[in-house]
Amino acid sequence: GLTAHLTGSVSGQAPDGIDVSLNAPDVAGLWSEAGPAAPVEVEAGAEGLPTALLDAFAAQEGLLVDVLGPTLDLDLAGRWPDPEAPLVARMRSTGSRVELTARLEDGVLVAGEGQGLEASTPLSPLYSRRVVGRLVPLLVGLSKPEGAPPVGLTVRNFRLPLDGDLRGLDADVRLDLNQVGYQLLPGLEGLGSLAAAAAPTGRTVNVPPLDLPIRQGVVRYEALPLEIDGQSLAFRGSFDLKTLELDLAADVPLSALGSRVARELDKVRDYIDPATPVPVQVRGTWSKPRLSIGREFLESALEQAAEGALRRGLEGLLRRDKDDKDG
């Protein structure tokens, strides 16, 4: 076997910036296709490590650099390969903290009871687009006002295939955006004043923590809240992370709907209470969402509007008849 303790540094690091302890009972197995017969025990620490090195090793295409900055402090401990023992990685940089506890099983990163990912980071551009934006697909242009709390992300009970196939992704996610500014997804202009209120004017809102279960790559929503210009909406449904297909619904006050949602509704809008909740559906894909109204509601609204118009017409006729008699 081999037991080693190494110190060193890479370009841009202080001397002895890397400290590694290694215990490998089966040295030859490290280079065999079958892997070592006994797990390798690793304990490592690094200060001021260039984030680009870790980003390239993890094939994150710039995401870690975007989130953690140019350098980070890293602590790593675990056994490989050992499906029973988790790997623990802690990464810290100015304003960011990421901790991962998981194990590797046949090419799948698995987090069981008491394990998972915890992160507190700024809302950087790539992180916003590739992670947060996928979890809240109706929001785009996410930003943090100066002095706002960081984004909190907790992922438990997850299975993440390292081959990138999101259909194999299962996870329980808790996303805490805290205070954030955003715009609505382009294509939802039919929400009228709500969409207008989401223009990039520096407007910010406080979004409560969101619990988002993911099963087979599909995010489920019980109440995805949007608070814009005093209006509170709660969307329910799902978003497929693999195909980017939307299937969401919410009850929206009639007064908040623009004129492009349904022509039939516009014809009878004057006969319906503006506070009436209208069942709105968002379907299609993330790049081409479709906003529509439930057919049953439209039929019922047309019937009610016809009754209201008839009643008003009769009342007007009776008033005119009474005026004629009085005259």
* Overall morphology: elongated
Q: From the structure provided, what is the oligomeric state, counting identical versus distinct chains?
A: single chain
Give the mean pLDDT: 81
Estimated radius of gyration? 28 Å
Binned strand content: 35-45%
Q: Which structural class do the helices and strands define?
A: alpha+beta
User: How many separate helices?
Assistant: 6
Distance between the termini: 114 Å
* Biggest sheet features: 16 strands, antiparallel
Poorly predicted runs: 196-202, 313-318
Q: What is the N-to-C succession of helices and strands?
A: EEEHHEEEEEHEEEEHEEEEEHEEH
Give the helix level as a range of percent. Answer: 10-25%
Number of strands: 19
Quick summary of this structure?
With 327 residues, the chain is of the alpha+beta class.
Can you walk me through this structure?
This protein is α+β, with helices and mostly antiparallel strands. The protein contains six helices and 19 strands. It has helices spanning 51-57, 63-68, 125-135, 193-197, 263-268, 295-326, and strands at residues 2-8, 18-24, 40-50, 71-80, 87-93, 96-105, 108-110, 116-121, 139-143, 151-161, 170-176, 178-184, 205-207, 210-215, 218-228, 231-240, 245-253, 277-285, 289-293. The chain has a 16-stranded antiparallel beta sheet that branches. Strands 9-12-13 form a three-stranded antiparallel beta sheet. Strand 10 (151-161) and strand 11 (170-176) form a beta hairpin. The longest helix is centred in the last third of the chain and has 32 residues, at 295-326.
